[in-house]
Amino acid sequence: MLVMRGIVKQFPGVRALDGVDLDVRAGEVHCLLGQNGAGKSTLIKVLAGVHQPDEGTIEFNGEQVRPSSPNDAIRLGFATIYQELDLVDGLSVAENIFLGHEHAKLGFVNMSAANRAARQVLERLGHGEIRPSTEVGRLPAAAKQVVSMARALSHDARLIIMDEPSAALAHDEVDNLFRIIRELTAQGVAVVYISHRLEEIREIGDRVTVLKDGRTVAVGLPARETATSHVVSLMTGRNVEYVFPPRAANPPGEEVLKVEGLTSPGAFADVSFSVRAGEIVGLAGLVGSGRSEILEAVYGARPASGRVELAGKQVRHSVVGNVRRGMGLAPEERKAQALLLDQSITANITLGSLPSFAKLGWMNRARERAEAHRLVKALDIRPPDPERPIKNLSGGNQQKAVLARWLLGSRKLLLLDEPTRGVDVGARAELYAVIRDLADRGIGVLLVSSEVPEVLGLADRVLVLREGTVIHQADAGELDEHRVLDMIMDGRAA
Amino acid sequence: MSEPKIPPAAVPETGGSAPPGAATRNPLSALGEARHLGLLVALGLLIIVGLVTRPENFATTSNLVSILSLAATIGVITVGATFVIIGGGIDLSVGALMALASVWATTLATQEYGPFVMVICALLVGTGAGLVNGLLIAYGRLVPFIATLAMLVAARGLAQRMSDRKTQLIQSGNTALVDLSTTRVLGIPLLVYIFALVVVLGWILLNRTTFGRRTYAVGGNPEAARLAGIDVRRHTMLLYALSGLTCGIAAVLIMARTTTGSSTHGDLYELDAIAAVIIGGTLLTGGRGTIIGSILGLLIFTLITNLFILNGLNTSDQLIAKGLIIVVAVLLQRRNLKERAP
Fold first, then answer.
1. Quick one: closest CA in A to B207, which residue?
2. Mean pLDDT for the stretch of residues A144-171
3. Which residues lie below 8 Å from residue A187, measured CB to CB, with a gap of 6+?
4. Sequence-separated (6 or more) residues with CB below 8 Å from residue A475
5. Do A337 and B223 make contact, defined as CB atoms within 8 angstroms?
6. In the prediction, which pLDDT does B102 show?
7. Is A245 a member of any domain?
8. Which of A68, A172, A264, A435 sits in a 20 to 30 Å window from A103, CA-based?
9. Numbered residues of chain B with Cβ closer than 8 Å to any chain A Cβ
10. Are A424 and A35 in contact (CB under 8 A)?
11. Which residue has the higher pLDDT, B134 or A476?
């Protein structure tokens, strides 16, 4: 159905695609694998009409095509669901679904017709509960994903490209996503599926194409039969899946964080726990279980009642004060909440500790550069040029820069919200090592992740959350994935 | 697989020499940066036009001095406006604040205390009114456009009230203030040196201090700045106070140049200042921009005015030309941005 041959895309200074072949059949789920920076995003953008290839051919249903704009791609029947959802928050669900092809006569939108049609599409996706008139900005991430999908369906797309559709979803929502995908493929729609979760690919995928450094290294491998180690070695030249660093040999030190009766109405209630120096505490739970909200409340970024103590002293709800006293947060939405995309790697790293580089406000830039350079090297941030704008980095490297920010100054407590979201397997292992090393140096770490194996593998102690309450606390060693999943999904404590 | 390999000492006190090849930026090389090149070319073209059309008048000392004196007042305001706009805001009240400061400093009551107090008065009035803007925007959560629009109207009204809509002359005892425009060093009036000083201080503040870094951060991604522990509200407030301060300085300059304080001073200065900032390549959405760009933008604007006057052309045509230049400048920058984007 879709045949791409020898696609080359050159950017100033980078050859993002260097001869990529892709071959997608009607009715299949074709998985695209590759490390961050392997060229997956660029390839998608070529299909979506955002970028035009410098060389190579694209054939769709036997005809040469060349999507010259996003509109053009949509007309061809290509729909793209991006990793960072591209919805307009201020518009309603129906308005978003039909954005660009409204139900309109002479410029007047027929809202009731649009709402009806939107309801139909949403029901087809098994999400009739999402009201077409709701403002999208008020929806949780999973529902936004469904709206994106509905938009693709409303275009009668014949090829749907999904860039990490499961990244923002919890377990049961992923199942629902797979159900939708299977329905689509049964109707002859082809799906190009990008994910870093190998187990997902084995579950939903038919065939796999692997990219490395802008080139295709394997085409059309059978998704279920190919051994994981083989896929990973193709991607990386290394044989790893999840490699967790060994836990600390020393027992954890003094309590750095003590939370008592923390309550934020509508998000979580009466949460109490503590984190000790050198300890990694993981919060496991579904999206909407209050994980991220607890982090925000501890950080002072969300109003909450209850008591939060940092190193024995009660803290007020003030981010500025908490950062000064030694907290740091790596937020869930990297681009929206953590990065200054236009600025250099250096400026992004030092953002959280500017005063420590200054005397009376005057920046010591030589020292700043030296520190940034040292951290870029130490965390192996690529490309290793601290003056480069951070927007040119891959997700994993951007995340390393966010961690590097909190390596400066004397931190007592780090709050990590989905630190490996959208990060490939190889870079993940590096991030895990960095996080463990932070803890080994006496920092308390509070970790939130949607991936249970990640929480179990990395954390020393785990709090299981369900609907805003802590239903279980245990050492990570005493838990296994199935038990935790049972608890967070069915609410059966231990 | 990579080992855990965080460096032994993450303590910032352990400095170290700059890594080899690290980019060093100084004011001169910043001027030569590609993004300013277009502005320099435009400026050069305008100078050539001046030399060709009015060879006998353009390159004279008196003309150049008058260009610089004219540029000085708005120029000082432009420096403040650059900070506000990079910080993601907008200040429409600058012209009105300058007028209010000039009126307040030239009331008979203030003038009794002599020129020094008059200067302090102008600076305090500008900063104070800017602080009110900042408080309304940062803590009152008003949209900058609305808060400063309200300030524009109210400050003009207050200036008219204080002056009874009359032009207030600087009295004979206080002519030391006027000396700023009449005393020349190396043939150039003192007020031009003040302008230059403000530009240099502004450049340093933006490029060499934590205040400047925070300005870019707050304008570029306020949420990220907040979560990184920057007091975004306080910084926003300070930006408007800084803008007010530059209006106070501009009031001193215009009092020196015109020997008056008046509620009509600085009419539509806000538009000229914003236009200069935009032509200079600062994004209205914040997070990106330079002082040098703004000043080049301002010089282009001032030079156009001068050329139209020298050639005896209609002021209406001059406005049309300025409008076109804003559009062309922004279009060209947009193209540059696209080329640089990955």
1. A363
2. 81
3. A27
4. A460, A461, A462
5. yes
6. 95
7. no
8. A68
9. 1-7, 10-12, 15-19, 22-23, 208-214, 216-217, 220-221, 223-231, 287-288, 339-340, 342
10. yes
11. B134
Residues A279 and A381 in one domain: yes
- Cβ of B4 within 8 Å of Cβ of A429? The answer is no
Q: Are A224 and A285 members of one domain? A: no
The last residue of one of the domains, among A178, A206, A236, is A236
Residues A176, A301: one domain? no
Q: Which of A17, A292, A318, A320 to mutate to test the interface with B (most CBs of B within 10 A)?
A: A320
Do A181 and A283 sit in the same domain of this protein? no
Tell me, yes or no, whether A363 lies in a domain.
yes
pLDDT digits over B186-196, tens only?
888 999 999 99
Which residues, 6 or more positions from A365, have their beta carbon under 8 angstroms from its beta carbon?
Answer: A357, B208
Note whether A387 and A344 are within 8 A (CB).
Answer: yes
Query: A23-67, pLDDT tens digit by residue?
Result: 999 999 999 887 656 788 888 889 888 889 999 999 998 889 988
Mean pLDDT within B247-268: 92
Contact A357 B12 (CB under 8 A): yes
Between A236-245, A248-257, A428-437, B165-174, the lowest mean confidence (pLDDT) is in: A236-245
The DSSP result for B142-181, as a single string, is --HHHHHHHHHHHHHHHHHHHHTT-PEEPPGGGTTTTHHH
Using the predicted structure, report yes or no on whether residue B333 has a pLDDT greater than 90. Answer: no
Domain total of chain A: 2
Look up residue A122 and give its two tokens.
């949403």
Question: What is the DSSP pairing of strand A362-363 with strand A215-222?
Answer: unpaired
ipTM over 0.85: no
pLDDT band at A85 (very low <50, low <70, confident <90, very high): low
Instruction: For A8-17, write each residue's pLDDT tens digit.
Output: 988 765 677 8
DSSP-assigned beta bridge partners for residue B237: none
For B14, the 3-state DSSP assignment is coil
| Element at A335 (helix H, strand E) | none
Q: Burial level of B301, CB count in 10 A (0-12/13-18/19+)?
A: buried
Domain locations in chain B? 56-333
- Chain B residues in contact with A374 by the CB 8 A cut-off are 7, 16
Query: B23 vs A358: CB contact, 8 Å cut-off?
Result: no
Pairing of strands A104-105, A108-109: antiparallel
For residue A462, give its domain range: 255-490
From A222's Cα to the closest Cα of chain B, the distance in A is 27
A470, amino acid identity: V
Task: List, as one string, the DSSP characters of B217-237.
Answer: HHHH-HHHHHHTT--HHHHHH
Note whether A10 and A149 are same-domain residues: yes
Nearest to B134 by CA among B237, B239, B218, B247: B237
pLDDT at residue A244 in the model: 81
Phi-psi region of A164 (alpha: psi -120 to 50; beta: other; left: phi over 0): left
Same domain, A144 and A227: yes
Nearest residue in chain B measured CA to CA from A405: B228
* 3-class state of residue B111 by DSSP: helix
| Stretch B199-219: mean pLDDT | 94
Question: Does residue A247 lie in a domain region?
Answer: no
CATH class given for the domain over B56-333? mainly alpha
> Could you tell me if A186 and A116 lie in one domain?
yes
**With 60 as the cut, is the pLDDT of residue A492 above it?**
no
Question: Which of A354, A402, A431 has the most B C-beta neighbours within 10 Å, making it the best mutation to test the interface with B?
Answer: A354
How far A409 CA lies from chain B's nearest CA (Å)? 6
Output the CA torsion sign for A234, A236, A238, A241: negative
Cis upstream peptide for A383 (omega within 30°): yes
Element housing A8 (H / E): strand A2-11
Residue A152 shares a structural domain with residue A115: yes
- CATH number, domain with residue A14: 3.40.50.300
Q: Are A338 and B23 a contacting pair at CB < 8 A?
A: no
